[in-house]
Amino acid sequence: MVDYYALPQDWPGRENARSMNSTAQKAECVEAALLADIVDEMGPRFDSRHFVPFVTMHEFEALLFSDPDLFAQGIERRDLAAGFLAIRQGFSSPEDINDSAETAPSKRISGLFPGYQKRLFGPLAATAIGLSTIRKECGHFDDWLKRLESLA
């Protein structure tokens, strides 16, 4: 799982992804290029079925907008639910939340909650929201998990 935004400019597939319209298309392009690069580097004996890359286009925090009420409840800041909802309503999917470095999901959260700590509040919110809700709202993330589950 890697964050597209933070990837180096020469990361496999990043150049081609720039010309694509949707965040899902960009992520899939980079994932395919990363897999091809790993297979090429590891050689023909590498079993590529066990390397399943996932590119989140912006940040892990985007997934937390899957349920703004439970997000606020999970971090014990119910007063933030309306603000989280307003952010979420501006996008077709939580995975699309971003516009620039200043409006990344974590920056939006910090704008409403200056004391936001990613490593503390992120897991609390994700636990409150639940994986089933995140999967329902975030199709690309759900597809990745399905691929991982198919390996079992």
Low-pLDDT parts are none
Shape category: globular
Query: Which range best describes the helical content: under 10%, 10-25%, 25-40%, 40-55%, 55-70% or over 70%?
Result: 40-55%
In percent, how much strand structure appears in the residues?
A: under 5%
Write the layout of secondary structure elements.
Elements (H helix, E strand, L loop, with lengths): L1 E2 L10 H4 L5 H20 L12 E2 L4 H4 L3 H7 L6 H8 L16 H8 L5 H12 L1 H7 L1 H11 L3
Parallel strand pairs: 1-2
Can you put this structure into words, describing what you see?
The protein has 152 residues and is an all-alpha fold. The protein has 2 domains: 55 residues, no CATH class; 78 residues, no CATH class. The protein is built from 9 helices and 2 strands. It has a two-stranded parallel sheet. Helix 4 runs antiparallel to helix 5 and helix 4 packs across helix 7. The protein starts with a strand and ends with a helix. The model has no long low-confidence stretch (mean pLDDT 93).
What structural keywords apply?
9 helices; 2 domains; single chain; mainly alpha; 2 strands; 152 residues; two-stranded parallel sheet
Task: Give a quick precis of the structure.
This protein is 53% helix and 3% strand. By secondary structure, the chain is mostly helical. It starts with a strand and ends with a helix.
